[in-house]
Design brief:
It is a single chain. The protein contains 8 helices and 12 strands. The chain has a 5-stranded mixed β-sheet with strand order 1-2-3-4-5, with helices on both faces. It has a 5-stranded mixed β-sheet with strand order 7-6-8-12-10, sandwiched between helices. It starts with a helix and ends with a helix. Helix 5 (149-158) links the parallel strand 6 and strand 7 (161-165). Helices cover 40% and strands 24% of the residues. Helix 1 packs antiparallel against helix 2, helix 5 packs across helix 8 (233-247) and helix 6 runs parallel beside helix 7 (191-203). The protein has helices at 3-23, 29-51, 83-87, 115-118, 149-158, 168-176, 191-203, 233-247; strands spanning 56-59, 73-81, 94-101, 104-112, 121-124, 139-143, 161-165, 182-185, 189-190, 207-209, 224-225, 228-231. The protein is an alpha/beta fold.
Length: 248
């Protein structure tokens, strides 16, 4: 099984497990989120360790192991990205399975189990499709509960429409799927929030960087990542220029 096949299969199975946990009807909101996270994490961690025993591993739900810092290949996973949306039975949550090689988000899959009436969808690095053409009025995805000031100000400057959405993975995949055009985040994330989505976005020919234009680097000792920009390449410089003005 190739790394891309492994990532896609893991993300898809984890998504199905999460839907089954929720469908049991025996848990609600916070308890459901915890149970879903734990169930998906146990599956993903054990499967990766069995299928790729020589690789490093970083998971939001697992105690960090510093051994990964000396490894070239590190799987970076988020069993449920958007726990709140998952618990509320919304569609905008995701499962992230990414592989960073030499610090670069290289291979991965993002499952959207709640998409298309819970038929589900898995976007992967080895099966890129053409990103749909942008509309005249650009659309910027932002947090549905706390949109960042920088994002709202940039959107106003470039005349973009704000599209509130849940998880980071759902936002990033909205760009890949042509449902939105810019994902600008400045409120802080962690490596597991963006590794798989960035790998998929890069494979689809999109621009991915920090909001100062510098590269996104993974498998760091400090896994906090302050900001992120994903958009079509033709929009990148315009957005970066406006971000720089807002930052000043």
């Amino acid at each position: 099984m190739t790394d891309a096949d492994l990532a896609a299969n893991l993300a898809q199975v984890a998504g199905k497990l999460l839907l089954d946990v929720r469908a049991s009807g025996m848990l609600s909101l916070k308890a459901l989120g915890k149970a879903g996270d734990a169930t998906a994490n146990q599956f993903l961690v054990h499967a990766i360790r069995e299928q790729r025993p020589e690789d490093g591993l970083l998971s939001e739900e697992e105690k960090d192991n510093a051994e990964r810092l000396s490894q070239r290949r590190v799987w970076i996973i988020d069993p449920v990205d958007g726990t709140r949306e998952y618990g509320e039975a919304r569609a905008d949550w995701a499962v992230h399975v990414g592989l960073a090689i030499d610090g670069v988000a290289t291979i991965g899959a993002v499952a959207l189990p709640g998409a298309d009436g819970e038929k589900g969808l898995v976007l992967r690095t080895d099966r890129p499709s053409a990103v749909p053409q942008a509309p005249e009025v650009l659309r910027m995805v932002v947090s549905r509960t706390r949109p960042a000031r920088e994002a709202t100000e940039v959107a106003m400057k470039i005349g973009a429409e704000l599209v509130p959405m849940g998880s980071a993975g759902a936002k990033a995949m909205a760009i890949v799927r042509g449902e939105a055009d810019i994902y600008l985040h400045s409120g802080g994330q962690y490596e597991w929030d963006s590794c798989a989505p960035v790998a998929v976005a890069l494979a689809h020919g999109l621009h991915c960087s920090r909001i100062d234009g510098s590269p996104l680097i993974y498998n760091q000792a400090n896994v906090y990542m302050p900001d992120l920009l994903i958009c079509r390449k033709e929009h990148a410089q315009m957005v970066l220029d406006e971000i720089a003005k807002v930052a000043v």
